[in-house]
Amino acid sequence: MQFDGALIREQGVTFAIVVVKQHVLNSPHERDQMQQFGLQVFGPIPIILMAQDTRGIPTYYGRQDIVNFLSRVNPAAIPWKRYTV
């Protein structure tokens, strides 16, 4: 399985972003599943989910302080990577 994401260390906090489809953010069950998947891949760090709308505008879900931080970051500045598990 392949997915896009990022592993980030910022201001002393290490967290991961997992890119998901928009409908995942609207489903509590699917959000929980994807965050559990992120924990299996990245280990016990905060997992943030990110989906983009049709205009490419990101929406983040996860720990609120990290979501607030990411809302001020240009997505092009995030070190995205394709992961294979």
Brief summary:
The protein is an alpha+beta fold and 85 residues long. It contains three helices and five strands. The protein has a five-stranded mixed beta sheet, with helices on both faces.
Write the layout of secondary structure elements.
Blueprint: E1 2-10, E2 13-19, H1 22-25, H2 28-42, E3 47-52, E4 58-61, H3 64-70, E5 81-84
Parallel strand pairs: 2-3
Antiparallel strand pairs: 1-2, 1-5, 3-4
Per CATH, what is the topology? Trna Endonuclease, Chain: A, domain 1
Enumerate how many helices there are, as a single number. 3
Count of individual beta strands: 5
What are the secondary-structure elements, in order, as H or E? Answer: EEHHEEHE
Major pleated sheet: 5 strands, mixed
Name the shape in a single word. globular
Oligomer: single chain
Structural category is alpha+beta
Main CATH class: Alpha Beta
Distance from first to last alpha carbon: 5 Å
Mean pLDDT, as a whole number? 96
- Any idea what the CATH architecture is? 3-Layer(aba) Sandwich
